[in-house]
Amino acid sequence: MGKLLIVGTVAFDEIETPFGKTDRILGGAATFIGLAASQFDIESAIVSVVGDDMPQDYLDLLVKKNIDISGIEVVRGGKTFYWKGKYHNDLNSRETLVTELNTLSDFKPVVPTEFKDADVVMLGNLHPEIQMSVIEQMNQRPKFIILDTMNFWMDHALTELINVIEHVDVLTINDEEARQLTEEYSLVKAAEEIHKMGPEYVVIKKGEHGALLFHKEQIFFAPALPLEEVFDPTGAGDTFAGGFAGYLAASDNMSFNNLKSAVIHGSNLASFCVERFGTKRMESLKKEELEKRLHQFKALTQFDIELT
Amino acid sequence: MGKLLIVGTVAFDEIETPFGKTDRILGGAATFIGLAASQFDIESAIVSVVGDDMPQDYLDLLVKKNIDISGIEVVRGGKTFYWKGKYHNDLNSRETLVTELNTLSDFKPVVPTEFKDADVVMLGNLHPEIQMSVIEQMNQRPKFIILDTMNFWMDHALTELINVIEHVDVLTINDEEARQLTEEYSLVKAAEEIHKMGPEYVVIKKGEHGALLFHKEQIFFAPALPLEEVFDPTGAGDTFAGGFAGYLAASDNMSFNNLKSAVIHGSNLASFCVERFGTKRMESLKKEELEKRLHQFKALTQFDIELT
After folding, report:
1. Distance from first CA to last CA of chain A, Å, rounded?
2. How confident is the model over B247-292, as pLDDT tens digits?
3. CATH of the domain at A61
4. Confidence label for A107 from pLDDT (cuts 50, 70 and 90)
5. Which residues of A touch B210 (CB under 8 A)?
6. Could you tell me which of A23, A42, A244, B205 has the fewest CB atoms within 10 Å of its CB?
């Protein structure tokens, strides 16, 4: 059974979409990553920080999914990271209305002793120095380190970001961010530039347009499943990353071929995430539902052209 | 050997991209469709109209690809349809600088007698009444009618457009146009609405994000091949349609499974079209190059997840 260490935010999200709005609900990168990864046969732990305004119910929800939360620091008298956002009609663009870092601004992650030998480390979007400090706490180089990031760090901590990117096996990044980071418009060229920065694999996330996996000259594409309804895209990218990381930790095989399966599993999980507000759909998701939808992914992409 | 009848513009394009600009060069929907379809073992003909300013060299280029041009009316003293456009830096958006309909404004298509029994009819983007008049000239209902259209006709000839859509087997349309036509944001729902309008199949083109094929409950997705360089996107959609139509005419099999292959062939051809200005790449394209790139499409999309 593989061990997965997840680092990222556990947060309050307040979301408005064309279909409704929420109060402060459970969100955060590590939450979505953890819930998605919990679908696989692994041991997992989250390293994060929250204030004591975080309801025990939300933490229990993670524990119920067999996620070790001993690495989630609860700051007494502190407030949890809070994000409020609004999606436009097409759900492809969103506006951040409020960001309160709160306890996140002084976050010093501490990796639990039992996870210092994790096989896979999934570094959710955070300050690159925080991501780096997690790598440095590991007993040995993990088999596989996955890093997610965003444009904010390119604008405000580029040197530190480039430093941590050098130490990871996979960078997951969205298309616009890949272009910003490399100053290449073509995603093929952008991936080549990222390979040169260190990562052997690059995953470029294109939201409703799927995800591309690059490994040197090889490219694999996983579409997003076309859905009748997308209700709330919040957490879809992290859910994708969690499925990707969880599958790799469970299968203990870091070949390109197995990474292809991992991006399909990630896309599969993300297709459920967007069906309800926040974490709602992920909380109740069953293995049978995942299996059924994998058949749809096969039907969606597989074709029979005889080649010589 | 299947017979394919193509109706659409043969035109002058003047194109500016971030990589350079052209003079008036050969363009038009029927031109790109015809060149793409000529890669398959079919008899094909173009029905169109040009002025006598159209150089014989351009028409000869079509004849050299075994395309029957007896249905291309040459209007003495007339001027050929002319489009001038400029692509922005990302090549995903373009601006039309000039559109001169010229001889196209009085176009009355006449289907050559030998093609009134065509197996497949590909109606390129034109006024829906012109498209309808072609269907009406056929000796019998063709095995397969494919219709391409654009938002302009939704704005200016919606009744006529809805009428011709009812008579076809496949509507090919881009994502924004599918949304406009159906007032559904979800492409799955948009395709359902289009099915209700008549077509058994719907192809939604998403440019660099690939194409979706819908057939009732079934969905198939063909990605666009990620390319190092996209030089000029002009004609890519028509090239896709030409590959789709040409493959179907050659294989004489209109099953969903074979249509899946047809959209892959269309995507394959389109991936070459964008590598040079205008029709340049399509003029020299060899069957071996197509075959080689089909392997890339397989590698890009095929995965091995065991399903129960």
Report:
1. 41
2. 999 999 999 999 999 999 999 999 999 999 999 999 999 999 999 9
3. 3.40.1190.20
4. very high
5. 209, 223
6. A23
- Work out how many domains chain A is built from and give that number: 1
Give the ipTM: 0.92
Interval A143-167: pLDDT, tens: 999 999 999 999 999 999 999 999 9
Q: Is the pLDDT of residue B90 over 80?
A: no
Give the single-character DSSP code of B224: P
Distance of CA B78 to the CA centre of its chain: 25
The pLDDT tens digits of the residues spanning A195-241 come to 999 999 999 999 999 999 999 999 999 999 999 988 899 999 999 99
Chosen for mutation from A175, A305, A306 (greatest number of chain B CBs closer than 10 Å) is: A305
CB A50 within 8 A of CB A103: yes
Predicted confidence at residue B1, as pLDDT, reads 80
Is there a contact between B291 and A307 if contact means CB atoms under 8 Å apart? yes
| Backbone phi, psi, residue B184, to 5° | -115, 130
Question: Which of A222, A304, A247, A294 has its CA nearest to residue A2?
Answer: A247
Q: Where are the alpha helices (DSSP H) in B8-145?
A: 29-37, 56-64, 128-137
Q: Which residues 26-55 of B are in CB contact (within 8 Å) with A?
A: none
Residue B93 near chain A (CB below 8 Å)? no
Kindly state the percentage of chain B with pLDDT values over 90: 93
pTM tops 0.80 = yes
Q: Which residues of A touch B302 (CB under 8 A)?
A: 301-302
Report yes or no on B308 lying in a domain.
no
Q: Are B157 and B131 in contact (CB under 8 A)?
A: no
> Is A89's CB within 8 Å of B260's CB?
no
Range of the domain at B111: 2-301
Residue B306 domain flag: no
DSSP letter, residue B41 = S
What's the farthest any 2 CA atoms get from each other in chain A?
68
Q: Which of A206, A260, A303 sits opposite B261 (nearest CB)?
A: A303
User: Which residues in chain A touch residue B40, judged by CB atoms under 8 angstroms apart?
Assistant: none
Q: Which of residues 69-88 of A touch B (CB under 8 A)?
A: none
Q: For residue A217, count other CB atoms closer than 10 A to its CB.
A: 7
Rounded to the nearest angstrom, the minimum Cα separation between B151 and chain A is 18
Residue B307 maps to a domain: no
How do beta strands A94-100 and A82-87 pair?
antiparallel
Q: Is B185 on the interface with A (CB under 8 A)?
A: yes
Residue A306 domain-assigned (yes or no):
no
- Rounded Cα distance, A18 and B306, in Å: 38
